[in-house]
Amino acid sequence: SQTIHQWPATLVQPVGSPLSLECTVEGTSNPNLYWYRQAAGRGLQLLFYSVGIGQISSEVPQNLSASRPQDRQFILSSKKLLLSDSGFYLCASKSGGQYTEAFFGQGTRLTVV
Amino acid sequence: AQSVTQLGSHVSVSEGALVLLRCNYSSSVPPYLFWYVQYPNQGLQLLLKYTSAATLVKGINGFEAEFKKSETSFHLTKPSAHMSDAAEYFCAVSDDSRGGSQGNLIFGKGTKLSVKP
Q1: Which positions in chain B touch A25 (Cβ < 8 Å)?
Q2: pLDDT tens profile A21-42
Q3: What's the DSSP call for residue A84?
Q4: Which end of chain A offers a freer environment for a tag, N or C, measured as fewer CB atoms within 10 Å?
């Protein structure tokens, strides 16, 4: 099975500061990669997904961007954080077809102050 | 496009009681359905999945779910709740309209399960 490495586990950043969250995947190749955000009571919101290197699809307009410089590396970034960017960010990987599950990292708790 | 609806954002049961978490799906094609569990400040872990092989699916930790096409449902059950089952549970459906050959997972809003001693 796949292992998703996500760091850091927690992060406190001031408003207006930049952000870079990194996710790497082991145990598969050419997966779909995803960034989700969880805000309290709002479930899982899909922010970005990628079907291959350099290919990024954005699901919601926002202050964030994503990049996939390598097959198993996915990065979530922001140039200037907003208070509303606070939340729990999850990276996920999916490969093997539509009937297969996604594997998740342990998440990053981001608090913007 | 596919979607899932989870009925009840919070469910509370007593230890030893039946757990029933509801999920209804909408799909124009035969769906692939999933249940995940999330413990506080952790990622999601797969409980079970339906991929059309059998309508009653058994998962980890004693959970199971039954696919009912006529009711467009995929409810999650466990005969006897344990304190360690307290967590948030998410139902998901594979969306074949996006994500290329892999499809993307579309999640419900989640149901938080509390277990009383």
Answers
A1: none
A2: 999 999 999 999 999 999 876 7
A3: G
A4: N
Cβ pair B102:A31 closer than 8 A: yes
Separation of alpha carbons B106 and B104, rounded Å: 6
Three-state SS for A40-58 is CCCCEEEEEEEEECCEEEE
Q: Is A47 on the interface with B (CB under 8 A)?
A: no
Q: How far apart are CA B50 and CA A4, in angstroms?
A: 23
CB B48 within 8 A of CB B100: no
Tokens standing for A50? Answer: 């990628």
Query: Smallest CA–CA separation between A50 and chain B, in Å?
Result: 8
Q: A96, A98, A3, A85: which is closest to A45 by C-alpha?
A: A85
Q: Who's near A16: CB < 8 A, 6+ residues apart?
A: A80, A81
At position B28, the amino acid (one-letter code) is S
B8, B74, B65, A44: CA torsion to nearest 10: -60
Nearest CA in chain A to B112: A41
Kindly determine whether residue B101 and residue A98, on different chains, have CB atoms separated by under 8 Å: yes
Residue pLDDT, tens place only, B29-76: 888 999 999 998 899 999 999 988 789 999 999 999 999 999 999 999
